[in-house]
Amino acid sequence: MSETAPVAQALSNGVLTITLSRPDKRNALNRAMIDALHSALDRADLDAGVRVLVLEGAGVDFCAGADLDELLASTDRTPGENEADALRLGRLFIRMREVPKPCIAAVRGRALAGGAGLALASDIVLLDASAQIGFPEVRRGFVPAMVMTLLRRVVGEKVAFDLVATGRVVGAAEACDLGLASRVYPAERFDDELGVLLAGLTAADASALALTKRLFYELDGTGFAESVALGARVNAAARETPGFREAISAFLAR
Q1: Are residues 158 and 217 in the same domain?
Q2: How far is CA 89 from CA 14, 31, 192, 230, 233, in A?
Q3: Which residues are catalytic?
Q4: pTM over 0.90
Q5: Is the predicted pLDDT of residue 239 greater than 90, yes or no?
Q6: Mean per-residue pLDDT, 190-196
Q7: Closest by alpha carbon to 214, among 128, 105, 106, 97?
Q8: Are 135 and 119 in contact (CB under 8 A)?
Q9: Mean pLDDT on 2-13
Q10: 9 FRET partner, CA 20 to 30 A, in 32, 165, 182, 252?
Q11: Could you give the CA distance from residue 151 to residue 169 in angstroms, rounded to a whole number?
């Protein structure tokens, strides 16, 4: 019997739902899953029928982090091999930011370590009220190395160091207060609220969303004057899109 695919994909009404499918392992990230996620992002980038991505986990947890069996086996590899292996996950975080379509993390249960990284690499993070986010690597003698790059960008320095140095796991409400998530909904409303968000995003102009996402992340680390100049170039580019002309004309005709 063939092993179940580590990632499932389903496209409906412009939404590509990417499901981490190792529920028996709490959707732990192994090489096969990381490769499958890269393939799913490639599809999302190239398929014009995909307007929005949703990343979710099968079973009770979103993603509990790295597969510990694979992680332990890596101690027998060379530093160069392990760096290349780590970069495969790191490039996944970068790729999620590069895909010109909004990526939504729908988090139920725990999002830990690399799983928290997947959530933070997404553009919008929705939490079930029972969800938890944390970076417990230090408790396992490890370092939250690549996810720290994401974490420092979404919360303040002191909060970020607190989370990575203590490894404490925070609940949904605190996670949202800290800036780790966009919104929190109770379980009974979660799917409905996710549906409302997706309906709004799929109805929006694809070019405008793509330009917005690109500019948003290109502003990271740029100076004020450079950011204004970059914004002006994107502003000019947006005026040339058919969607802009149609939307403004329709508004003026009301």
Answers
A1: no
A2: 26, 9, 31, 29, 32
A3: 137
A4: yes
A5: no
A6: 98
A7: 97
A8: no
A9: 88
A10: 182
A11: 14
Q: Which of 2-16, 59-73, 159-173, 228-242 has the highest mean pLDDT?
A: 159-173
Token pair for 68: 């510990």
From residue 95, alpha-carbon distances to 34, 43, 252 in Å are: 12, 12, 38
User: What percent of the chain is modeled with pLDDT above 90?
Assistant: 80
Q: Between residues 236 and 32, which one has the greater pLDDT?
A: 32
CB 160 within 8 A of CB 103: no
How far is the C-alpha of 152 from the C-alpha of 169, rounded, in Å?
A: 16
Q: Which residues pair with 170 in a beta bridge?
A: 133
Q: Are strands 15-20 and 7-12 parallel, antiparallel or unpaired?
A: antiparallel
- State which H helix or E strand residue 220 sits in: none
User: Six-digit token pair at 182?
Assistant: 């966009």
**pLDDT at residue 71, as a whole number:** 84
Helix/strand/coil for 182:
coil
Identity of the residue numbered 63: C
Report the distance separating Cα 95 and Cα 173, nearest Å: 28
The range of the structural domain enclosing residue 209 comes to: 205-252
Pick the last residue of a domain from 164, 183, 202.
202
